[in-house]
Design brief:
By secondary structure, this protein is an alpha/beta fold. It contains 14 helices and 18 strands. An eight-stranded parallel β-barrel has the order 1-2-3-7-8-9-10-11, surrounded by six helices. Helix 7 packs parallel to helix 9 (about 270-295). Mean pLDDT is about 95; it is low at about 1-20.
């Protein structure tokens, strides 16, 4: 009998293990008092919380020479870390160069499964399970969005110019198609090989590679990082980019004076404007191609943190509309990437006063921009607060309704780094950055992304315990509850009626509360056998104590029964058995449109 009593006590303690969560006052005061309140811009309920899951150089994945089961175990470890810390999205680097992590008909299997150079690429896929498919299935079970992350122009991180392409690259590598068309890839000063953005075949290859994933996988988004034209390294800058052949073939034909290499700006049709047009065209075409197939797939880009400096710096002219920063990697000037134009989706604000149709106005480009603001507010050249404020102010200029969502990229990887000025040893630094963007960016900044996954763990090779402690602090002070991904501004017209859930029931058990309901919604699939907009794929569980006011989002559960009017049972093991609760349950589709709530009480 004594053993039974001990067992009951242990079960009771375990069932109450989340009851001791301390809710900071600034979180508690912002909890909704009624389900009728607008929660769409309240970050406690609606906030994008993502991490980058890097494959290049085996940063986070894959495990070099690991078995299929070992690769799966590592994937689960990362997804569980995101789930446990109340994240809701992940950017998975599916194509770090010419190689990919999935079973592709276009590209070879990435070298990083077996080695570090191109001779480790394979034409065949080495695993029985497609690991991208596995990631998506496991992430969706945890209600985590999966965005497939591509590096568009990089073809190889290693290259020996003393050997032939055939000796160095797998037969499936696009480099062979490229050179068979009498084209020469750019061997940049970082000793890596890149496709020339000015060659139409480069654009077609990138689009084909992306669309293969869009059509064959149940992804939530496509994502690019900050690699476009290459910038300064070893004293070389954009001026040294070797594109004389493509510029002479296509630039002049398109109406650009390619001999004009004076500093470019809007309304000037020189070489650099032609380069910028190449990138604009790729980004805009991808928007069109993705949406033509799956309107619900999000298209996002995470550029370097600065569009343009306000003042001239080194070779970079600057702009009166730029930020009060001193970045040696400004997107517009150094990479020919007009990330502000993309965020505004072609709207001509005062910052783009001189922009013309030729500069890319009046086009749709992206669903979200995620500037990598990888500095603290004490950084001498690019302070976090100054940079973030600039993005907020530019977003405020948009009036045509097409503004892309704005998230902020944070430098988790810098936690614990040595500096006499920046406080990277303060475990609350990133938490304070979240507080800052929530307050100053309300209505414009919808969330955060953190680079990179492995920095979240104890004894991390790069951050020691600082990254782990920073994420733990965020969980305890910012991400206390789970959050729903915000609806995207560019998808505001993609709404279908989601029927309210029915047949509410509640039962009090010894160490949990059981609630149940039925879902009257049909489970509808598109031409790719993936859930349509308007089809519920998960449910949100809100709760409050009777005679109290604060409503908490306590859980999100995946739909597992796809029949109409199927009964769903949920066991709330975090409930205090001495309290009486009211539950509010909603159904959500894949782009997080939410149904009216169903109330469940005694």
């Amino acid at each position: 009998m004594k053993k039974i009593n001990i067992l009951i006590f242990v079960l009771t303690v375990l069932s109450c293990k989340t009851l001791n969560i301390i809710i900071p006052n600034d979180i508690k005061k912002n909890l909704a008092k009624s389900m009728e309140e607008d929660r769409s811009e309240n970050p406690i309920y609606r906030e994008f919380r993502a991490a980058w899951f890097s494959t290049v150089g085996n940063i986070d994945f894959p495990l070099r020479n690991g078995s299929e089961e070992e690769q799966k175990k590592l994937i689960i470890k990362h997804l569980d870390a995101l789930y446990q810390n109340n994240f809701n999205a992940v950017f998975v680097q599916v194509k770090p160069d010419a190689g990919v992590i999935f079973n592709s008909q276009i590209n070879p299997t990435t070298r990083y499964f077996f080695g570090s150079d191109s001779k480790s690429e394979r034409d065949d896929y080495p695993f029985e399970t497609d690991l991208l498919e596995f990631i998506i299935e496991e992430a969706h079970q945890r209600n985590i969005e999966v965005h497939a992350w591509f590096n568009p122009y990089r073809i190889s991180l290693t290259y020996n110019d003393k050997k032939s392409y055939e000796e160095q690259f797998s037969k499936k590598n696009f480099i062979h198609t490229y050179v068979s068309n009498n084209l020469k890839p750019v061997y940049w000063f970082d000793k890596k090989l890149y496709l020339d953005p000015g060659e139409p075949i480069s654009e077609k290859y990138i689009i084909d590679s992306v669309i293969e994933v869009v059509e064959n996988y149940d992804i939530d988004g496509i994502h690019f990082d900050d690699y476009f034209y290459q910038n300064a390294i070893k004293g070389k800058t954009y001026k040294d980019w070797d594109d004389k052949v493509s510029a002479s073939k296509y630039g002049k034909e398109a109406g650009y004076d390619i001999k004009n290499t004076s500093y470019d700006d809007y309304g000037i049709d020189g070489l650099y404007a032609w380069r910028r047009n190449n990138i604009n065209n790729l980004v805009s075409k991808l928007y069109t191609e993705i949406k033509a197939r799956k309107p619900y797939v999000k298209w996002t880009i995470s550029p370097a943190g600065v569009w343009r400096n306000k003042n001239k710096l080194s070779e970079y002219k600057g702009s009166e509309y730029g930020s009060e920063t001193k970045s040696y990697n400004p997107n517009f000037d150094a990479l020919h990437a007009d990330v502000l134009l993309w965020m505004l989706n072609g709207e001509k604000t005062d910052s783009l006063t001189n922009a013309t149709e030729k500069d890319g106005i009046n086009k749709m480009y992206v669903d979200a921009i995620i500037p990598q603001v990888y500095w603290s507010s004490k950084h001498r050249l690019v302070p976090f607060d100054i940079t973030v404020n600039w993005w907020i102010n530019e977003a405020k200029k948009s009036t045509n309704g097409n503004l892309a969502d704005l998230y902020i990229g944070h430098a988790l990887y810098r936690m614990g780094s040595s500096t006499n000025i920046e406080p990277w040893h303060d475990v609350d630094l990133l938490s304070k950055q979240i507080d800052y963007i929530r307050k100053e960016g309300k209505g414009f900044i919808k969330g955060s992304a953190f680079f990179t996954m492995h920095n979240m763990y104890k004894n991390d090779i790069n951050t020691g315990n600082f990254g782990y402690e920073a994420i733990k602090y965020i969980k305890e002070n910012n991400y206390i509850f789970k959050a729903i991904v915000p609806e995207m501004n560019t998808m505001k017209d993609l709404k279908e009626n989601i029927l309210r859930l029915e047949n509410p029931k509640m039962k009090k058990k010894f160490n949990y509360i059981e609630i149940s309901f039925t879902d009257p919604n049909e489970y509808k699939l598109d031409d790719y056998s993936h859930p349509k907009i308007g089809t519920p794929v998960y449910y949100a569980i809100y709760r409050k104590i009777v005679n109290s006011y604060e409503i908490e989002l306590v859980d999100k559960i995946r739909r597992t029964n796809f029949n109409e009017n199927a009964k769903v049972v949920y066991k709330d093991k975090t409930a205090n058995r001495k309290s009486n609760y009211i539950y509010y349950i909603t159904a959500l589709d894949r782009i997080h449109n939410e149904s009216d709530y169903l109330e469940i009480n005694n």
